[in-house]
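Quick one - first record:
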Amino acid sequence: MSEQWPPLAEVRKELRVEWYRCPVAPARLRELMRRSDAKGWFQAGGHLALFGCTAALVILCWAHQLWLLFALALFAHGTIGTFFRGLATHELNHKTVFRTKWLNKLFLYVYALPSWDNPFHYAVSHTYHHRYTLHPEGDREAVLPANVSLRFLLMLQLFTFNVWRSRRNLGHGGLVPTVLDTVEAAFGVVGGEWWTAMYADQPREKRKAIWWARAILAFHGTILVVAVATGLWVLPIVLSLFPFIANWWAHFVGLPMHAGLRDNVTDFRKCVRSITLDPFSEFIYWHMNWHTEHHMYAGVPCYNLSKLYREIADDMPRPRTLAEAWREMRAVWKRQKTDPGYQFDTPLPPTANPGIAPPAARKAQPDGLSQSIGELAPAGL
């Protein structure tokens, strides 16, 4: 292991990030952190219902050989389904969506299995991401600088079928690297420094990730066997390949989370970016466009993040539009080609506090409340 990337067991002992969080009255914060089964069903059940509708439309067009409509329906199906992996499963991994705990787990597994997502691996990785956001020695889930290229071959994959693209660099992985990673994990092969570092002192979580990888292969293998036996080749397209089809929108709305911003800072307003979206996109994105607010108070359910923003708006940067975020990221990316050390310093409004919470604010927000990341962290962490 290189000196730049110390073992994570050492990082947990030595690295303490004293994050600034915009002050919120404890009573109001508890209210915002309240989980709701009704809102959870609307979010999780609603996204699944949309997925079911597009799947049914794809199958119907396939059955009637309406190939142009089939292509359009498949594009819509992939666009909706792409938000399963790492987005729906992200919030369900925090276990803040439903008040009833077993519903969070049930929906997490329902979303993760068909989308080739490993929630046990992600829970370990994402715990480090929240604790040490953009501090490279502890957060290797989001490593800067990010590639915000719009090159033709990348766009071709994102608007059609994502075959080769790596999951690294804040992106959605293609079919080949995802399947290879899953096969390796199923056989207990821990590939890459990040995997090795994460599981060095977490053997129990590693075993869970291995067994889930085997479950993924069994699930998709069964679908393939059924397709061969019945001739229903549309089934693996709809249920196994959808995470790699039409990744375009998840890419465009997801990359602004951290790209181009500052690392090694203790202020989420400088290392995380929030954007505004239309209501439908915000819904299928699980409200993660309010990403600064999510990092600041990760125990707040996704459907309350816009309320949290309104509560702390005077202390926050103005959320960018999607177009503004991409112009900002592209400008930073181009400048970094000649000035590799450059990072964008997000300006704060005149009403904002500096990046260190005053003592009164610290006392007003007990650590257990303000620092909650839901029930994301495994027992070993």
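second record:
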Amino acid sequence: MKTVLIAEDEGAIREFITINLAAAGYEVIEAENGIKALELFAENQKKIDIALIDIMMPGLDGFEVCRKIRELSAETGVIFLSAKTQEEDKLCGFNSGADDYITKPFSISELLARIDSLYRRIEFSRKLLSEAPKDTIALGDYELDLKNHFVYHKGNKIELTQIEFQILQCFFTSPDKSIDRNSILKKVWGDPYYGDDKVVDVNIRRLRIKLENDPSSPEHLITVWGQGYRWIV
């Protein structure tokens, strides 16, 4: 069954979301704060598909919860709920490993659409992995492990989030080809995408930090002005 973990300290909001998710066919695991959310995630990691996390919670804020979830799982989808609407707050959310960011107040139809979209992408990724004709794709000194969502550089393992892995897979299956932001959004997040398209740029920066010797002057994952991004072998 599709399962969502909700970390939200406001009981009325948490109950409202739970009722609507249950009606839409999701199993819901509720946490009233960040510490409880991590405990429940550790207990139910194998069954949780998506974590829906409020940012401003007592004890442990949503950014830290997301980072700790990412230490445990690259595959779980993460969506932030927040009253914070500033650009830097959204960037901080994406940089901590989130897949999407929804600002309060929100409509339940928008929330369900975003959750459904993320769940479809997670399922599609699982399907691709199960049907992959081979286990790895090698480009130069880099090797992409299609089964375990890792990339190896000269034999050294580098862990990627699910989003980072899927973006990198786009480039590894189309080496030396420029891919624009909208194409990446459609391939990774699905069509239609309801969130902020800057999530692509944030994940590109994270990939450069993990994969490039000098992220400020990348040698492989380069920007092609007016065309998008390209992986150069």
